[in-house]
């Protein structure tokens, strides 16, 4: 029998911390159910996120290349972004796809949601499949964005993964929910 209730830590108090624009700090004082040890945990509160696996009528996958400040490198990813307060996950996916790439479609399927890192984040990442996407507008980037849009065949996508050019975990998981990415892959250093 799996009794997960016995693993739940009791929250003794919470204290709001600094608002960091994308994240808000929260400090929770928690009691360990195993030994009553009291821990002050740091939690980053954030709006939920969304990622979109966008596929053209020609079966090409839309990806974006953009500079990521945390890793100080250019990252190849599927379109993604923050779900604004009051916005549904699908509406956010549609908005992000259009803003980042200029592509749109009416064919949307939810791929479910994942937990980005429940150890210290409180949010979810919703994932969608968008089929038959077409370039219908010019991209409308935020002030803090600079990116390049590309369309890749499945083989090109697999080659990019094998070369280590696609490393973003949310992108890899979203793509893995749609495509068999790992069959017969040849890794250079493997």
UniProtKB/TrEMBL annotation:
One of the GO BP terms on file: nucleoside phosphate metabolic process
Cofactor(s) of this protein: Mg(2+)
Keywords: Hydrolase
UniProt xrefs under InterPro entries: NUDIX_hydrolase-like_dom_sf, NUDIX_hydrolase_dom
Occurrences of domain Nudix hydrolase (ranges): 45-175
GO cellular component: cytosol
UniProt cross-references to Pfam families, sorted A to Z: NUDIX
SUPFAM superfamilies xrefs: Nudix (SSF55811)
Source domain of life: Bacteria
GO molecular function (one): hydrolase activity
PANTHER family named in the record: NUDIX HYDROLASE DOMAIN-CONTAINING PROTEIN (PTHR11839:SF18), UDP/ADP-SUGAR PYROPHOSPHATASE (PTHR11839)
Protein name: NUDIX hydrolase
